[in-house]
Every structure is written in structure tokens, then in C-alpha cells.
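Task card 7
Instruction: Convert sequence to C-alpha cells.
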Amino acid sequence: MKTLLVIVLLLVASLSAWSREFEVVERSEANKQIFKKVKLTNLVSHDSFDGEYFKIVRGKSDEAISFDEDRELILKAATVYHHLTKARNYFVDKLDSDYVKGLEKVVVRLELTNQFSELGHFAHDNLGPQFNNALTIPAGQGMASRNISPWGKEIWFRPSKKVHLSSLDIKNQDHELEGIVKRFRNQVHMQTFHRFLSQLILTWTNDNYVLDTDSALRTVGATLFLELAYRSQDTVNYVFTRKWYWLDSALVPEIIYHEYAHVALSDYLELTHSTPIIEGMADYFAGKIANSPTLAKKIKKYNTFNGKDASRKNEYQIQFESYDWANTDFVFGLLWQVGEVVGENKDSFMYELRQEITTDSSIRGQLIEGILTTCRRSCDSPFNKRIQLLKLLHNKKL
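Output:
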């Protein structure tokens, strides 16, 4: 009798959660895009992407995507499910997050172009369809009067669409580089002017001084060349750089990690809007899950944007506080460097840091205070580590 009971229990367990092998987009040891067969675990359906922790649906549907769909959609669904599982395991196994353990099943929507509506869940189909991005939305109460049911936290992955560079308003590292080049050009011009003026003054005031015409001509020539290069950079960029851009966010592992990090951090960092703090924190954990300081790079088949790089040497600029610059990698790089100072327990340190900040915190204010407060409480050598952190913040112009 006991043997029969054990067999029944095992059968029930096998029916409630099981695994199946699918091809997904993965990263190689060199961090390049590869296709790999993996087992999707914790499935609760034998014919669709419905699992214990995630349900992958298409568009506004409530039904999980079937295993019999077309190959491209299956690849997206399997890739998203696989990497979301990996991200959840990180927060549960590595950080022992009770909040993540207690989360309800997350609905994940692929190929959804609707904007998000806080009242109606989905905005009208004709209202500015969205492409080339991903979005994590907060739970909503719905509207019973309009037959809109409540919903939980969801992750939306937009479809990819080829768009021309001229239609994009990208505030990223390209703008920073343009500003650096402009400042360098102005500085060189000023130095050249001072040098030329000093030589003229010496010529006028000192009868024994002989103007070095060759040197003067070289200075003028170099200045003219720099000015020509500066003024023609837009033309050069147009001729030699990529004209068309697209992003298939459901097939880029680090974007998937980033979106789940928003969910995992949402007990303190609300999902109401995009800010430098909330995006930078999600970037940090995406990098830790990916085990790489770069995000969304070397995957040009699905992403032609610049990606993010924590090792980029950016100094603080006031515009980094604005919503328009929320997706630059300054906060990502800052947190990555803070983690290197903190040392061995950097991941738990950064997860604890979320308790000291809010979605609307400023970089120069609450984020710095939060880093120092968390270190005072959690660093292995609080005084020495805080000195090192203050030095890092000073070098970042904070």
C-alpha cells in the first residue's frame, strides 16, 4: 500500500512540474551569441509555455504560447522562459530573496505593441504602437465597469522593427562623445589663439625676437584640419555608420535579466516610470546574472544599438539626473565600480542598497548617501571601505 502511495505521489509531482528541451539564444564563453539546446524546468503544461513562475503569452492573449507555434515565436518564448528562470534562480539562490520567493506567477507578453495604461492595462491599438524595446509594468486593479480584470506584474517584449537613425532621439554615449569632441576642439582653438597672440606680442615688443613662420603655419594648418574634421563629422557618420536600427529584446539575454531585475527590486523601487536609479540598479543585476560588465553587445543579429558597458570611464554630468538620460550607463558603471570596492559580498550589498533609495532618488544625493550608509552597516571594513568609496566618488566628479 505504501509503495502504491509513493508511486501516486511521484506521478502527481511529475504532472505538476516537468521539463522539456528547446533551442534558445545563449552566450558563449566569449560572450558571443550562440544557439543552444536547454531544458526548460518547472513547466506545468505539457503543450505550452506555462510554468510555475512564468507564463509566456502572445500580445494581449491570456493563453500560454503553444509548443506548436512557428519556429521564430517558439525560439523567443523558449529564450525568454530560460533566461527568466536563470534570473529568478539568481535572486532566490544567490541572494535568498524572500520577496522574490513569494512573487506570484509573472505573465510575460511577446510581440505586444500597445502602450501601457495604468487604468486599462492596454492602451488603444491605434495609440502610438511600440517597437524595439521591453517594459516591466506594475500590477493594476482593473476596471470592473469596463470588464477590465485586475493584473499582476508583467514583462512586455516588443516586436522588432527596422527604423532609420534619423527618426530616433537617442541620448546616449554618442551625445557624450560629441560633447567631448566639441570641448576638445574649443580648448585647442583657445590654446592656438593664445600661442599665436603671444608670438605677435613678442614680435611687437622685442626687436630681437624672430617670428617662427614655419611653426605658425603648422599651428594654423593643424587648427584648420581639426575644424574641418569637426564640421564634417556628421557627413562622415552618415556615410560610414549604420543607417537602420532594430532591437529584438526577447532574444537578448541581458535585456531579459534587466527586466526581471525590475520585478525583483520592485518591493522598494516602484515600476511607475524610468529613472537613472531604477535603470542603473536593474543594469547592475543584469550584468551580475550575465557575469559580464557589458550588456546587449556582440549580438548584432538581434540588436544594432550600442548596448551598455560598465567599464566605460564616464564622469558625472548633471543631465544624468534627468529622465531623458535614464538609459545611459553612468549609474551602471558607478555601481559596478562600487561593487569592486566593496569586494566579496558586493551582490548582497547592492541588493541591500535598494532599501536606502527610491525610484525618484537623485544620483548625487540619495544614491551616494545610500551607498555610504549601506557600507557603514555591511562592509567588512566599514571605515577603510568608505574612504575608498569617497575617493571613487570624487574621481567620478560626484
